Amino acid sequence: MSSSAVRVRHARITDLPHVAQLAAEHARYERAAPPPSDLALRLKSLLFGSTAPRLRCFVAELDDAEIIGYASCAPEISTWGGTEYLHMDCLFLRDGQRGLGVGPMLMEAVRSEARFLGLGLVQWQTPAWNTDAIRFYERLGAEAKEKLRFSLPVD
Predict the structure, then answer these.
(1) Using CA atoms, how far apart are residues 124 and 142, in angstroms rounded to an integer?
(2) Beta 56-62 vs 122-123: how paired, if at all?
(3) Residue 9: how many CB atoms within 10 A of its CB?
(4) Which of 11, 37, 127, 143 is the most exposed place for a label (fewest CB within 10 A)?
C-alpha cells in the first residue's frame, strides 16, 4: 500500500462505529481500560451535536473505504502562555498500517485544523514506553516535555 491509496478527511456520522472500534484497539495498544460500549453515540454528540462542536476527528481511509486510523483534537487553553492551542487527544493507526506515510497525513490534518482555528501550537502526549511513537513525533520536529497525567473522578 502506498500513501496515495489513503486519504484523510473529517469523520462523518457513518464513520463513528469504525472510530469507536479503532479507539478500542488504541486502548488495548496503550494497555488502558476499554472505552465505553456506547462510545460511537457519545462521539456523535461531541462531534455533531452542536453548531460549534469542540471536538474534531479525522479518519484515514483506504481507497476501498476501509478506515485504518484516526486522530482527534480539541482547542484548549494555556494559562501560562495566555493563549489557546489545539490538543490532539488521539492519533492511532491499525497494526500493519504504521510506517507507510499515513501518520504524517493525519498529523498534517491536525496541524491544518490548528491553522484554520488560528492556533499556533498543537500539544499531545504519548506513553513513555511507546518509543516508536516518540521517534515518529521527533522526526516531525516535535519536542517532548516530561509530565505525569493525573485523573480525578468527580462524584
Answers:
(1) 10
(2) unpaired
(3) 11
(4) 143
Site of grid cell 492556533: 119
What are phi and psi for residue 134, nearest 5 degrees? -60, -45
Query: Tens digits of per-residue pLDDT, 131-141?
Result: 989 998 999 99
What are the DSSP calls for 20-49, one per residue? HHHHHHHHHHTT-PPPPTTHHHHHHHHHHS
What proportions of the chain, in percent to the nearest 5, are helix, strand and coil? 35, 25, 40
Distant-in-sequence, close-in-space partners of 123: CB < 8 Å, separation ≥ 6: 76, 85, 86, 87, 88
Q: Report the mean per-residue pLDDT for the chain.
A: 92
Q: Which helix (H) or strand (E) holds 119?
A: none
Quote the pTM value: 0.90
Output the nine-digit C-alpha cell for 36.
465505553
User: Any idea what the Cα angle at residue 99 is, between residues 97 and 100, rounded to 5°?
Assistant: 70
